Amino acid sequence: MAQRPAGDGGPEKAGTRTRIQVEDVGGRRPFMRGILVHSLMARGLAFEDAYATANEVRERIREQQVLTPLELTKVVDDVLAAAGLSVEPAAPLLPPDIAVVARGKEVPFSKGILSQSLLAAALEPNEAFDVARRIEERLVRDGLRRVERSALRKLVYDALRSASGERVARRYLVWRRFQDPDRPVILLLGGATGVGKTSLALEVAHRLGIGRVLSTDAIRQVMRIMLSPELMPAIHSSSYQAHRQEGFEPTPGADPVVEAFAAQASVISVGAQAMIDRAIEENSSLVLDGISLLPGRLGLEAYAGRAHVIFLVVATFDEDAFRARFARRGEGAADRPPHRYLGHLSEILRIQDYILELAETHGVPIVENVSFDRSVLSIIRYVTESVAKAEEADAPRAG
Predict the structure, then answer these.
(1) Cα(391)–Cα(395) distance, rounded to whole angstroms?
(2) How far apart are CA 152 and CA 136, in angstroms?
(3) How far apart are CA 63 and CA 346, in angstroms?
(4) For 368-384, what is the mean pLDDT?
(5) I need a surface site. Which of 39, 77, 258, 342 has the fewest CB within 10 A?
(6) Whole-angstrom Cα distance, residue 218 to residue 48?
(7) pTM assigned to the model
(8) In this structure, how many other beta carbons lie within 10 angstroms of the beta carbon of residue 397?
(9) Rg of the chain taking only CA atoms, in angstroms
(10) What sign for the dihedral angle of Cα 227, 199, 286, 358?
């Protein structure tokens, strides 16, 4: 293939060049090799092949001032065939902009944004992107330049129902309707140290599009700054070492580790409730994780009718899994060495038993975090289906 350095003569010579234009029903756009290179790489070509192809395409059309997308596509196909290269099928190389219309306003259609929204249906990321890509191809194939948001959601719903079933499609619609909520979602993830709460909270929040993610560890740190050890000794130690605080006197016959931890959690839960109150006042969804979130101890009944409060406890029953997570923590934080946790694994497991007992007593579901990806999908499914059930329960009263 012929290759010339950027900025060589012809129509693209600096100061005198006339850009080659690609014209369709939406108007004219300049032909740009960089865009073509990116498009070809997205269809499976290596950079070198994509770059050489784009150069050869430019050479073949450099005498043309205007051509259509179909004409450009034919030139690209001819160049690829001559070089013995093949690419994955794709929508036209220069698809028109598509506007999504809602409430009189238009926003550009983006398969990236659409695939993000599909994650709330508990799809794997690659599945979500594949559905979004097929929707984009459908819109381009139908020649649509504007699509109502309700019509787009119907297309997505039909695609999901066909590919994954009614339940998945319904989860998507529920969460899409919930993007302008009258009540926020407050997702609480409790569990002992090392079960993976924070990692799950971050990923679930990302997939659900919830921008506010907090941890009771951060709340405790703020409280430590405000309250001295003399004034509030319970919060100035780790959950599994609270029983060693000076002045702590265990109740005879009680487990001192559990009793001191419960007292500490009771103090920190005041800050957690303040964060929940603030989120509800601002009508902003929140994911809050932390060991101090104890079933039956947060007074969540007060939020009924004001928010969708969903409480789950994360657990790990495999001691080797605990050890592996503590090792990974040590790799990422010098002030959190693995031995700091491993030396207190017995206390951590006793605290977990206590949390699980509370969860069982108060009917809080438990997510066993064996596989991170499965746990993420399980939590998302539970959240969206809980919201759907709440909406169905409210519907008769609203009518």
Answers:
(1) 6
(2) 10
(3) 77
(4) 92
(5) 77
(6) 48
(7) 0.68
(8) 6
(9) 28
(10) negative
